[in-house]
């Protein structure tokens, strides 16, 4: 499996094994509005600001970021943090405009939802066409064809030869919850094993499985029982694949009788945890251990799936076939639909009525998903992801060496699912969350939306639409470099 690239010091070849453990999806990194007149180099001059699609008359009332921030603070709980204190008005492919008319290049893609870009024409057209027919019946009352067509498509895309079935739900956490339910029903066992640094959602069960306390799990336990944690192979923390497997075996001896474990769930590339790929040997060992003990292997592909890593599913890089796959995010190009794909015999374990939900597999979202998947296929976005990954690796290495020598510790990931990690210095490799935060802030001020990740908040991850043009990506990279230079000066 592809690993890491050392950008700033070729002698540090051991960095190719660097693994960081994870952080947050949307931890707030800024809450104050951009000061007046602080527009960055890429802010269009007022006269060149592209007007709102529907004209200024259609702009939402109360249009300044500062005013909206004030209303937000009064009306929305602070627990719903936002990474950036700017309010979106419209978006197109890899660009977003805020309510003040400023243009931003979007390297965050709505947290890995927009592999096909904002408002992909085919996705919008398919959703509109479905809206003109009907928007909701509830599949459990009156079923409809787009749900079936999407399930068929997912079954055909998932790795492995045997028959498959798919359940559709609405959010990623709901998909993970249902994967656990299905695994328990299929095995008749309660236990679930997840990994340090893993992120699986914000419902109580998925929080129990998520391997990071702050901010997700603080103050709200206890979590459901029969959830166990195994060490993620993290070279950065000195945990090799061998150590991780030993840790799992120890868990079997001390806490989790393998005969009572229903499933092991793992992200093939840690998402919030820092964009660290699971080494191939680890994935193969998990498959072997699962087979040995009758445990089901769940690949959580919610962040890594649908082309982000250059394949439909990140686990394909390892050749391992999981029993269940959880999907969401880029499956539908911005519409809320998620799912569980799995072995037909396992998926059928629960009786009629045991699965579902009022909105699960909403027909508009299903139509959008079918169009997004078609766009990934017909526009060659898997190959584009691989090529983009190479571009980002090369450019980050150049930028790191030139602008932040010895501070860019690692460039890691798979395909276009890439992160760069910042440290205070190479010798201690201490995580530098302050520099990372400053890079994100200066990038925003210059017109680029970034999002951090990693257990220590010291990595910046790339989730740019795979449909972004080379010119927009290069423009974003140049802003990144300028922001990095500014952040280095500010934090020196
Ligand atoms: C790997 C993974 N699993 C589950 C989830 C939860 O998905 P959602 O936020 O749609 O509930 C996420 C969200 O970031 C994720 O990255």
* Count of discrete alpha- or pi-helical segments spanning 4 or more residues: 13
Highest-level CATH class of the largest domain: Alpha Beta
Q: What is the total number of structural domains?
A: 2
Secondary structure class reads: alpha/beta
Strand order of the largest sheet: 5-11-10-9-8-6-7
The description of the largest β-sheet is:
7 strands, mixed
CATH architecture of the largest domain: 3-Layer(aba) Sandwich
Shape: globular
The hetero molecules present are:
pyridoxal-5'-phosphate
Q: Say how many strands there are.
A: 16
Strand content: 5-15%
Can you tell me the CATH superfamily of the largest domain? Type I PLP-dependent aspartate aminotransferase-like (Major domain)
Helix content: 25-40%
CATH fold annotation of the largest domain: Aspartate Aminotransferase, domain 2
Order of helices and strands: EHEEEHHHEHEHEHEHEEEHHHEEHEEEH
Question: What report would you give on this structure?
Answer:
The chain folds into two domains: 4-118 and 380-491, Aspartate Aminotransferase, domain 1; 123-378, 3-Layer(aba) Sandwich (Aspartate Aminotransferase, domain 2). It has helices spanning 65-75, 109-112, 121-133, 145-157, 172-187, 204-209, 241-254, 280-293, 344-347, 363-378, 381-403, 433-446, 470-491, and strands spanning 4-5, 88-92, 95-98, 103-106, 164-169, 191-195, 227-230, 261-266, 296-300, 324-327, 338-343, 408-414, 417-422, 448-449, 451-453, 459-462. The protein starts with a strand and ends with a helix. The chain is of the alpha/beta class and 492 residues long. It has a seven-stranded mixed beta sheet, with helices on both faces. The protein binds pyridoxal-5'-phosphate (PLP). Pyridoxal-5'-phosphate (PLP) is lined by residues 25, 111, 171-173, 176, 199-201, 267, 271-272, 300, 302-303, 328.
């Amino acid at each position: 499996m592809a690993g890491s690239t050392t950008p700033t010091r070729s002698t540090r070849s051991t960095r190719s094994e660097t693994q960081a453990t994870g952080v947050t999806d949307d931890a707030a990194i800024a809450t104050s509005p951009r000061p007046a007149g602080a527009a960055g180099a890429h802010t269009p001059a007022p006269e060149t600001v592209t007007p709102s699609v529907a004209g200024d008359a259609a702009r939402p009332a109360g249009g300044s970021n500062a005013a909206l921030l004030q209303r937000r603070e009064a009306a929305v709980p602070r627990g719903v943090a936002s990474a950036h204190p700017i309010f979106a008005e419209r978006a197109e492919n890899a660009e977003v405009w805020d309510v003040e008319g400023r243009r931003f290049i979007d390297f965050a893609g709505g947290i890995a939802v927009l592999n096909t870009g904002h408002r992909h024409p085919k996705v919008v057209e398919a959703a509109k066409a479905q809206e003109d027919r009907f928007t909701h019946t509830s599949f459990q009352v009156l079923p409809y064809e787009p749900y079936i067509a999407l399930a068929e498509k997912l079954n055909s895309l998932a790795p492995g030869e045997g028959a498959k079935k798919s359940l559709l739900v609405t959010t990623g956490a709901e998909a993970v919850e249902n994967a656990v339910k299905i695994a328990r029903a299929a095995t008749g066992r309660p236990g679930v094993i997840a990994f340090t640094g893993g992120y699986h959602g914000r419902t109580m069960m998925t929080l129990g499985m998520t391997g990071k306390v702050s901010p997700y799990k603080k103050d709200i336990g206890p979590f459901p029982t029969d959830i166990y944690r195994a060490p993620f192979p993290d070279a950065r923390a000195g945990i090799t694949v061998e150590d991780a497997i030993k840790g799992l075996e120890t868990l079997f001896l001390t806490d989790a009788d393998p005969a009572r474990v229903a499933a092991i769930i793992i992200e093939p590339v840690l998402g919030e945890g820092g964009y660290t790929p699971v080494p191939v040997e680890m994935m193969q060992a998990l498959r072997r251990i699962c087979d040995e003990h009758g445990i089901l292997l769940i690949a959580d592909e919610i962040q890594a799936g649908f082309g982000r890593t250059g394949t439909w599913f990140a686990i394909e890089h390892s050749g391992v076939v999981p029993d269940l796959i959880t999907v969401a995010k880029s499956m539908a190009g911005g519409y809320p639909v998620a799912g569980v794909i799995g072995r037909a015999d396992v998926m059928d374990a629960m009786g009629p009525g045991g699965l579902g939900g009022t909105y699960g597999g909403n027909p508009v979202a299903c139509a959008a998903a079918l169009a997004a998947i078609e766009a990934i296929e017909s526009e060659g976005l898997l190959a584009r992801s691989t090529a983009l990954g190479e571009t980002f690796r090369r450019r980050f290495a150049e930028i790191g060496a030139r602008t932040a020598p010895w501070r860019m510790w690692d460039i890691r990931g798979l395909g276009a699912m890439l992160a760069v990690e910042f440290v205070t210095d190479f010798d201690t490799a201490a995580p530098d969350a302050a520099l990372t935060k400053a890079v994100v802030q200066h990038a925003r001020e210059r017109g680029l939306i970034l999002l951090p990740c990693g257990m220590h908040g010291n990595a910046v991850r790339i989730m740019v639409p795979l449909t972004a043009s080379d010119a927009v990506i290069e423009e974003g990279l140049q802003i990144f470099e300028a922001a990095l230079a500014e952040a280095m000066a500010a934090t020196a």
